[in-house]
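Tokenise the fold.
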Amino acid sequence: MTPPPARRRRTGTNGYAPAHNLLRRGAVRRSQMITTYGVGSLIAVDHESFVVSGLDGADTHWNSDESPKIHERRLARLLGVQHFRLPPASDEASKDGVRVRRFPVMQSCPECNELRRHRDFNPPPGRSICGTCETDLVPSRFVIACEGGHLDEFPYWHWVHRAAGSGSITAGQCGGTLKLRASGRSSSLRSIIVSCTCGVPEVSMEGSFRRNALKDLGLRCRGTRPWLGTSVPAQSCSFTARTLQRGSSAVWQPVLKSALSIPPWSDGRADPLAEHWEQLRNLNGREEVEMCLKFVFKGEIPVPVDEVMALLDAEREEDPDGEETPAFDHRYRALRHKEYERLRAGNDERERSRDEQFVCETPLGDPADLHPLGVTGPMLVKKLREVRALKAFTRLADLDATTEGREAALSTSELTWLPAMEVRGEGVFIRLDDNRLQEWERSTAVAARVERMRTAHERLIEQRAADPARVPASPATPRMVLLHTLSHVLINEWSLDAGYPAAALRERLYADGDMAGMLIYTATSDSAGSLGGLVAQGEPDRLAHTIRAAVRRAEWCSSDPLCVESEASGTGGTNLAACHACVMLPETSCEHNNILLDRALLVGTPEDPQIGFFAHLQA
């Protein structure tokens, strides 16, 4: 982390500092700008705190020289953009970086205990210290946010004056100065004392985190969006804001969408056409396409017309049948279906070019080793590329839900691009035998267990739905929960057996409709990325050994019998026999935030062992 540049910061009329080029020279990794410190999030730099700026302001844009374009046509079409951009690099060669703004503006001095806006301390140019005490200022520990994505300062003045009839006085006009101190009696909120020199009784911060604490003060969300700058007007908002710790994970959660690069898009040949693709796909026939290409590229067509027509046909195949303007969820499922088909089919040497980013081959070993396990069709994905794009973000969302809450925008206007990262690695694709799976799904006991999880999950979704009339269905089905739990135990087993950190592996489930597969692949591009170790685990003999070992390990949890006999676990009862001692993974590895898991569907329960898909493997 680097300190702010050594120059005086001008402040807007509302006290927010203008954007600084702070996140450069090793401050954060590129991947963190998508997953952890994306637009609208809070970041601590030394003893200061900032909010990462939006994408479309004159002083907040990303330098195109440091933010190279990346292309993934299938995902770009889904999200309605032309291309994606990598976040600016954080290295010694970086000249610009990502823009940030000071937030929260309310600061306190640990010497004089005064609590006021940063500029009111009269800090020297380029420093964040109290102009009187020459002590580093401390950003407010507390902020407020609402479910609509807005973010604001904690209303300290209203909080301390709440018992003094503050409704008739404009905030800050009592003539006093706010002070903040810690009594040191405990580490609870009761020991954080706020006072005002106007003479009102001092109060503690106890109770400020109650859901209705600010509503009881008569305060509603002001609709402020500090990450978009001072010139952006506040939005009208019907929600009541809630108090949060500045570093709480509830302050910012990314809305990420991802896609694998698969043929015919994975060799990069179509990249030069990205900015003109919308125009091309609206043309009729080969002649119009050829004429358009000649006009746009001045006669030097970068891609043969036959290949362009083949790409257009491949794109149309991903549209859900019978829908002219399919819903986003339907289009996302269609994208997954195409990936599933390609992973099943693979690609051979004749289909590859030198720049091919997707290499999927059939193992050399005999797949008959897997038939007794109910597993079929393993594929070795020796080369893959995944693009993860930051579509938006949410605040106060339920971390255990598989659907996003109310999304906050990254900018004030429509963008032709979105921030994204790309991961290159390797993986193993596995399918379950259709006949065995369908027979297992027909079990009444299996359906009853999954129905309990599905009901609990839909209850959670209803509680957080933006529109109660349009509540999405839970993805919980017997095959989804089975595949999800199996992928978790395999990742844990490979972590122990093959030396991969569990956080370096990631699952990608294909459980919708008639799909019944999973891809486990390297989720990081560092030294655990593509060294061939994971692909080697996909050979049938080794894979059979791994599955047997993983199932045996899943038979017993150190929390048994409480774990396996649990009637409900996880937030809202969305898990059954699943805990951190058996099947849960690091959150970076799981597509569904560690919910909809039940290892009893793998190995059964003491009362009913036959509900386990792999019950026949047990001694």
Q: What stands out?
A: The two ends are 55 Å apart (CA to CA). Residues 158 and 166 are 7 Å apart (CA to CA). The chain has a mean pLDDT of 83. The longest helix spans residues 444-464.
